[in-house]
Amino acid sequence: MTSGVTADSQRVFRFAPSPNGYLHLGHAYSALLNFDLARQCGGRLLLRIEDIDTGRARVEFEAAIYEDLAWLGLNWERPVRRQSEHFGDYAGALERLDAMGLIYACDCKRSDIARLAAGKPGWPRDPDGAPLYPGTCRDKPRRAAREVLTQRGVALRLDMRKAAALAGQGLSWREFDAGDIVADPSEWGDVVLARKDTPASYHIAVVVDDALQGVTDVVRGKDLFEATSLHRLLQRLLDLPAPDYRHHGLVLDENGEKLAKSVASTALRAEGWTPADVRRRIGL
Description:
- The protein is an alpha/beta fold.
- Helices cover 35% and strands 15% of the residues.
- It contains 10 helices and 10 strands.
- A 3-stranded parallel β-sheet has the order 1-2-3. A 3-stranded antiparallel β-sheet has the order 4-5-8. A two-stranded antiparallel sheet has the order 6-7.
- α7 crosses α8.
- The radius of gyration is 20 Å and the shape is globular.
C-alpha cells in the first residue's frame, strides 16, 4: 500500500468514531488505515470520541470502541478527546462567526422544508440529498448566538452567501492521489451549525477539533468527500489550518450498500474472527 505520506515533519492522524452504535468493518478499515499510515511515517495517531450528540451517545458503545480497537492491535495517544467535554471550544467558534454576521436564528422545522420541496422536482438538494433550506429566516432581526442556543426548536444557520463572499476565491483542499480539489461549499446551502440539543454540528466541531489537536492528515470515508468543501470554508473563516485529506473507499455489504452499525465488530469477535481475518476482509 502506498501511503503518500512523507516523514518531512511529524504527521498527526486521527480516528474519530461516534459512540452511537458498535463499530463495524467500515470503521475497522478507517481505523487501521490511519494506524498504518501513522506508523509508516513515524507520525502520531489520536483517538477522538465524537459524542457531541449526547442524546444518542452511550457509555457502553464508547467502552466497546476502546475494546474493539485494542483487539485490532491499535495504539493511540492518551488522553482521548471527548467532544462532550469541550462545548466551550465550539461556542467560541460560533461566537466568532456571529461577530462576523454570518449566522442567524432559524425556527423552521425539517418538516416545513420538506413540505415546501414536496412535488417540486427542481428543488435544489445538498450532496446528502436533503432539500436545501430556502432562507425563510435569513433576514429576520439577528439575535446573539448564545441567546439562540438557550431556546429549544431554534437552530443557528450559516448564511452561505455572506460566508462564501467573505471567504473569497481560491478555496480548495489537497486530496491524496488527486491533487488540489476546488471546494464548492455553496452546494450545502445555509447549513445548521448548532441547536440547543446539539450545541455544535459535526461540521463546526470537527474543524475546531482538528485544529486544536494539530491534525495534519484527515483520513476518512469517501462519504464525507463533499463535506470537505464546507469544512474548508469554516477553516478559512475561522483562520484554522487546512489538513491534507484522503477519502478512502467504503466497505460494502453483500447488497453493495454502506455497512450499518448494526453489523457490529463485537459480533465478528463472537463468531471467532481474528484481527488478521479483519485485515484480509477489508484488503489491508
